[in-house]
Specification:
Chain lengths: 119, 116
């Protein structure tokens, strides 16, 4: 079974500073993808960044980067130069090809971290 | 480009009533999904479809049904709503589906459903 753990229910950061949101995962499947989504108070789920299990380099997308440590099974999201608009719930999610070789595309989500950016 | 649209935005429903949540995507994605989001439980997959004409059960399918008559539409039906189906429902789509772990899912705006 796959599991995503986000141990920080809430995080606070000062505007313009960097913040790291933690995510650890558990899977026995060697092939998997890790995703981060942002959910602002308006409710929509916004895709931020993706990291594949075989990717050699950490993913980056603008102010978002993923600190991928495969041996530790962690995929932390780093947001640089925080902005007030970054205040939201952030979800880490994982997708695997299951043992049977078929995947119905299920994303396994963590519980989420609420990020609050202070001016 | 609208992406994914969902209707209604919100709904209050009496227990025992039938309800269909609509989902339409204009990205020509092969795969579509329905999730429900509940406080403390995150998002859980209800049903999925890897291509038009096929559907499958996710991890919480009981009480729900889906159909995929064409590429764009993926309605979710609650045959006889119960209060435990009170939730926020998200439709999502991805280009490929199936065995590709790189396949990013994009979400609709959600439907907030309350069953009384």
């Amino acid at each position: 079974a796959q599991k995503i753990t986000q141990t920080q229910p809430g995080m606070f950061v000062q505007e313009k500073e960097a913040v790291t949101l933690d995510c650890t995962y558990d899977t026995s499947d060697p092939s998997y993808g890790l995703f981060w989504y942002k959910q602002p108070s308006s409710g929509e789920m916004i895709f931020l960044i993706y990291q594949g299990s075989y990717d050699q380099q950490n993913a980056t997308e603008g102010r978002y980067s993923l600190n991928f440590q495969k041996a530790r099974k962690s995929a932390n999201l780093v947001i640089s130069a925080s902005q007030l608009g970054d205040s939201a719930m952030y979800f880490c999610a994982m997708r695997v090809i299951n043992a049977g070789g078929t995947s119905y595309g299920k994303l396994t989500f963590g519980q989420g971290t609420i990020l609050t950016v202070h001016p | 480009i609208a992406g994914i649209t969902q209707a209604p935005t919100s709904q209050i429903l009496a227990a025992g009533r039938r309800m269909t949540l609509r989902c339409t995507q204009d990205m020509r994605h092969n795969a579509m999904y329905w999730y429900r989001q509940d406080l403390g439980l995150g998002l859980r997959l209800i049903h999925y479809s890897n291509t038009a004409g096929t559907t499958g059960k996710g991890e919480v399918p009981d009480g729900y049904s889906v159909s995929r008559a064409n590429t764009d539409d993926f309605p979710l039906t609650l045959a006889s709503a119960v209060p435990s189906q009170t939730s926020v429902y998200f439709c999502a789509s991805s280009a490929v589906g199936g065995r590709f772990v790189t396949d990013t899912q994009y979400f609709g705006p959600g439907t907030r459903l309350t069953v009384l």
